[in-house]
Write a structure and sequence with these properties.
Blueprint: H1 2-27, E1 38-42, E2 45-53, E3 60-63, H2 75-82, E4 86-90, H3 106-119, E5 125-130, H4 132-143, E6 148-154, H5 167-181, H6 186-189, H7 195-207, H8 221-235, E7 249-254, H9 263-271, E8 275-280, H10 287-290, H11 292-304
Parallel strand pairs: 3-4, 3-5, 5-6, 6-7, 7-8
Antiparallel strand pairs: 1-2, 2-4
Helix pairs in contact: 2-11, 3-4
Length: 305
């Protein structure tokens, strides 16, 4: 009995310490370059995530792009939102430090996203989603629409949208180009290849290296293949009826997106009943990164109204 009593005390103390650490990670004066990585379990998966900013009842969840780990979030955007709202980024199943095998479909990734949000104890969230993250977010709206209050969809498109299934070829093409030129493929995939676009690409990629310690695990090749297949399949599926979703939606993109054609942003803006649209000039897939100084106040205004 004495041993059981002591064991119970130790467990309670451990739980209290963990809760205190999680609280500190949320409330301390961190930046995205310094905020610690935490873990939470859901559906047998141990999700890696980073959480910080102004704590409130409804956090902002960031859904990232193809093969993105925690270190692929733009610190300028994350820090700016954190000044006004709690923001949480996370690794998808089988990506970075999150355990498990990569999801087989966009719908699978949406189910994981819902499980992750519930594991953190939230009943409603706002979402900022970029590229593939936007595909996942739309599936979340279909599966559990009451979970999402507001959503920002950047550099993304609707299920079945023309050109989405072509992402596979473009991605592999620019990966090989990156290997031959010793550049990150995002230099080509996200930005126009003119003087302005190249300068924006260098700036963005430099920002992603600001975190010097406790960086995330690199993404493996098999995960890239799985995610590209999921995107291709999603691009060939039947279009979703976006008119049934009445939540506020802010859609943003560059005017020359090679990965997810810019006209799909216009298409979504027409199909969502409560949407606003911003197209940034002379920019590509990473328009919100190239124009982050303009995007940030627009996004914050949208999220805090």
């Amino acid at each position: 009995m004495k041993n059981i009593f002591l064991l119970s005390i130790l467990m309670i103390l451990k739980m209290a310490t963990t809760n205190a650490q999680n609280s500190n990670a949320t409330n301390a004066n961190y930046t995205y370059a310094t905020v610690p990585t935490q873990f939470v379990e859901a559906n047998g998966i141990k999700f890696a995530y980073r959480s910080y900013g102004k704590k409130g009842d409804i956090p902002v969840i960031y859904f990232n792009h193809l093969t993105a780990n925690l270190d692929n979030c733009d610190p300028r955007i994350m820090d700016a939102i954190a000044a006004h709202r709690q923001i949480i980024s996370f690794d998808y199943r089988g990506i970075g430090a999150t355990t498990g095998k990569q999801g087989e479909s966009i719908a699978d990734m949406a189910k994981d996203g819902i499980a992750f949000i519930h594991a953190l104890g939230y009943k409603q969230v706002d979402i900022v989603a970029f590229s593939m993250g936007g595909f996942i977010t739309q599936e979340i709206l279909l599966l559990e629409p009451q979970l999402v209050r507001k959503v920002i969809l950047a550099g993304t498109g609707p299920r079945g949208g023309a050109g989405i299934s072509d992402v596979v070829g473009k991605t592999y093409g620019d990966i090989f180009k990156g290997l031959f030129t010793f550049r990150d493929p995002k230099f080509y995939l996200f930005f126009n290849q003119d003087k302005i676009g190249k300068a924006a690409a260098k700036d963005f990629l430099h920002r992603l290296k600001e975190r010097k310690e406790n960086r995330d695990k690199k993404v493996k090749l098999y995960a890239l293949k799985k995610q590209l297949k999921a995107i291709k399949d999603w691009g060939n599926e039947k279009p979703m009826d976006l008119s049934v979703f009445n939540l506020p939606v802010f859609i943003a993109n560059g005017d020359a997106d090679r990965m997810v054609p810019s006209q799909l942003s216009n298409d979504m803006a027409k199909r969502f009943p409560n949407a606003q649209l911003k197209i940034y000039p002379n920019s590509g897939h990473g328009g919100i990164f190239q124009y982050h100084e303009e995007f940030i106040p627009q996004a914050i205004d949208f999220l805090i109204k």
